[in-house]
Automatic annotation (TrEMBL):
<dbReference type="InterPro" id="IPR016631">
    <property type="entry name" value="Regulatory_RpfE"/>
</dbReference>
<protein>
    <submittedName>
        <fullName>Regulatory protein</fullName>
    </submittedName>
</protein>
Length: 318
């Protein structure tokens, strides 16, 4: 019987939903074996499913591995298309990545940007309209900027690469913004009510990891970077699909299964994932369920733990 390893949102976010706070998680945590807490954050939680060298996740190289056959050649940096809006004192990012660009629009914008980035030694291309890349030498110093979803709505100046080392990237971004602002593609997009692609965002820097390991044989995730990392570790990636989970659990000899539920909505988390897994655990169809919250809490629940009736179940607390 497999062990299922769940990657979950922060515990306070689970507690914020009345449905989740009084549901399966509350019972599990009341009766589970608590494990030593880990450092809070996405990377420590991801390492419960897959381990790799280094202190950050090279998202650009990992997604490049999905989009093209050259991910092992040098280092990579995502330069995703973005929509920003200036106000009196700041410039705020309102969207990044999937802006509904067509292949023709993407090619036209890249045609204007390629001389700037090519002359700077970091050629740009876009095998996907929502994922753009800069390629650099393996030893190149690349900016360590946060992922777009961490800074949406925030002032970009707070997250640009700082200091003399970051000056090159700030200047490149400024040049790209001028080119994009004046491009006919954006005039046409504005005429039909689509958002302008008026900026880029540099993030996910790094080279493809030399190795990756996982105790899981399968990893279900909506995150393309984690899917790529799982494949690098010889764990089979799959979309986040409850039917796929059921099929894996029912197959004889299935190895451990990692399930990435970081972004699952509360109702979906409770009804479509936690409740079916709890029913399977009660039938002893699983060896255990390991819980890893983004806030650092760790626990393991086993079939026999449901008989710890002396442990009172209380709703999760924020």
């Amino acid at each position: 019987m497999p062990t299922v390893r769940l990657l979950l949102p922060e515990l306070r976010h689970c507690a914020a939903s009345p449905e989740v706070a009084a549901g399966v998680l509350a019972r599990w945590l009341a009766r589970a074996d608590r494990l030593p807490p880990a450092e809070a954050g996405t990377l420590p939680a991801l390492r419960t499913l897959v381990q790799w060298p280094g202190t950050r996740m090279p998202v650009a190289a990992l997604t490049r591995r999905l989009d093209a056959d050259d991910a092992g050649q040098g280092a990579w940096l995502r330069a995703d298309p973005a929509h920003v809006r200036p106000d009196l004192t700041t410039v705020r990012m309102l969207a990044c990545g999937d802006l509904g660009l067509t292949a023709d629009e993407t090619e036209a914008l890249l045609h204007a940007l390629k001389p700037v980035f090519g002359d700077s030694g970091v050629p740009i291309d876009a095998p996907s309209p929502s994922r753009w890349y800069l390629q650099a030498a393996s030893a190149a110093e690349l900016p360590d900027c946060p992922a777009p979803d961490e800074i949406l709505g925030d002032d970009l100046k707070l997250h640009l690469p700082p200091g003399p080392a970051g000056k090159r990237w700030r200047l490149l971004l400024n040049e790209a913004q001028v080119i994009l602002h004046n491009h006919p593609v954006n005039a046409a997009r504005a005429a039909r009510g689509a958002v302008a692609v008026n900026s880029l965002w540099f993030w996910g820097a790094g080279a493809l990891p030399a190795w990756a390991r996982s105790a899981c044989g399968h990893v279900l995730t909506p995150d393309p970077a984690l899917a790529s990392l799982a494949a690098l570790a010889d764990a089979t990636p799959a979309p986040l699909d409850r039917g796929q989970m059921a099929r894996l659990c029912e197959s004889a000899g299935t190895p451990d299964i990692g399930i990435d539920l970081r972004t699952a909505r509360a109702a979906v988390l409770e009804r479509e994932w936690l409740m079916p897994l709890d029913a399977r655990l009660r039938r002893r169809g699983l060896s255990a369920i390991e819980l890893a919250f983004l806030s650092g809490e760790r626990a393991v629940v086993r079939p026999g733990h449901r008989w710890r009736l002396w442990r009172r179940v209380r709703p999760l607390q924020r």
